[in-house]
């Protein structure tokens, strides 16, 4: 039996980096997916094939020996084989509709889809259980993850996420359009998170006052989302971008992408870890084309729809 699961990409509307130190973030799952297909084999190996390469590793080897691209998948396979005392090997195939390393949550979506696919080879698991496996797996490559990205990829929709694990899916269907544009600069989330820690340790007062400002900004953003007030939301995105620039995670290219859509959109900011990756711009039907046109000459960009389903599972 093959078990198939898929999970959506995510964008962070507000709160990246600050969420690592508490408070809240607002995330949104979007309509680009990673699919993971898994099956048990009669070998003693874990075999993985994805757009990023191939790996064959004896299932008795430590997951720590696997390249970081594959490590979370080896971890999940080993955990499940051990938990269910299975003598089987495993074959895992990953396919993705969006690029990795650009702030769209490819590693989290992959962990969630893999946890969903592999766990249901053995028995049914709830979304909460799958999320836990996915976050544990992501911690094998990114110890300090806030868990926000995996949570968005698991539940879908627009989420209010607190670092203490509280999750609130916002029951709203905002009339907004989001444009995602890729700088083409690959980043490492864990490295950028370490850069921010360095900033926080060096300038604790500045960092903690920015954290307080971010908490207030997110309350205003939640209110603006409920009221579908795009003008306000756009202004808050611009303000959030300023905080991200202050902690050093933006760069000249991201700043210039944001200024390209300054007049066309309601507002724009980087999304995810920054220091490369993607920006998002807020629009509606009236200015979507203009916003896309402002970016399309120089950057790969697309308008993203909100994915409301999150993790999806099936068997073949
Ligand atoms: C990365 O998409 C989001 C960060 O806030 C890290 C995290 O929340 O784990 C930068």
Task: Explain the overall architecture.
This protein is an alpha+beta fold and 316 residues long. It folds into 2 domains: 2-171, 2-Layer Sandwich (Ribosomal Protein S5, domain 2); 177-304, Alpha-Beta Plaits. It is built from 9 helices and 12 strands. The chain has helices spanning 71-83, 106-119, 127-138, 148-155, 189-202, 204-226, 230-246, 252-260, 288-296, and strands spanning 2-14, 24-41, 45-50, 53-58, 89-96, 158-162, 167-169, 177-182, 267-271, 278-283, 300-304, 312-315. Helix 1 (71-83) crosses helix 3 and helix 2 crosses helix 3 (127-138). The protein is globular and about 60 Å long. The relative contact order is 0.19. Bound molecules: (R)-mevalonate (MEV). (R)-mevalonate is lined by residues 12, 16-17, 19-20, 103, 145-146, 148-149, 189, 193, 272-273.
Structural features:
316 residues, alpha+beta, Ribosomal Protein S5, domain 2, Alpha-Beta Plaits, 2 domains, eight-stranded mixed sheet, four-stranded antiparallel sheet, 9 helices, 12 strands, globular, binds (R)-mevalonate
């Amino acid at each position: 039996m093959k078990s198939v699961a898929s999970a959506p990409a995510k964008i962070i509307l507000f709160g990246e980096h600050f969420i690592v130190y508490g408070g809240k973030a607002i995330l949104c799952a979007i309509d680009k997916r990673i699919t993971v297909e898994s099956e048990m084999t009669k070998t003693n190996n874990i075999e993985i094939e994805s757009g990023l390469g191939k790996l064959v590793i004896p299932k008795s080897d430590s997951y720590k020996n696997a390249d970081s691209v594959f490590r979370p998948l080896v971890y999940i396979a080993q955990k499940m084989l051990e938990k269910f005392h299975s003598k089987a090997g495993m074959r895992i195939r990953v396919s993705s509709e969006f690029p990795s390393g650009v702030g769209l949550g490819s590693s989290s979506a992959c962990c969630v889809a893999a946890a969903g696919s592999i766990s249901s080879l053995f028995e049914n698991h709830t979304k909460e259980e799958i999320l836990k496996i996915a976050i544990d797996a992501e911690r094998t490559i990114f110890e300090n993850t806030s868990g926000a990205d995996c949570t968005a990829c698991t539940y879908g929709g627009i989420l209010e996420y607190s670092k203490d694990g509280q999750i609130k899916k916002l029951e709203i269907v905002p009339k907004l359009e989001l444009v995602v544009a890729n700088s083409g600069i690959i980043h490492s989330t864990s490295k950028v998170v370490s850069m921010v820690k360095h900033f926080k340790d060096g300038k604790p007062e500045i960092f903690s006052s920015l954290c307080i400002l971010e908490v207030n900004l997110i309350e205003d953003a939640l209110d603006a989302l409920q009221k579908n007030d795009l003008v306000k939301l756009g202004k808050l995105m611009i303000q959030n971008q300023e905080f991200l620039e202050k902690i050093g995670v933006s760069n000249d290219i991201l700043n210039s992408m944001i200024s390209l859509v300054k007049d066309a959109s309601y507002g724009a900011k980087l999304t995810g870890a920054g220091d490369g990756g993607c920006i998002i711009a807020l629009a509606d039907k009236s200015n979507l084309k203009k916003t896309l046109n402002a970016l399309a000459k120089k950057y790969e960009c697309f308008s993203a729809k909100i994915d409301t389903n999150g993790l999806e599972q099936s068997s073949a």
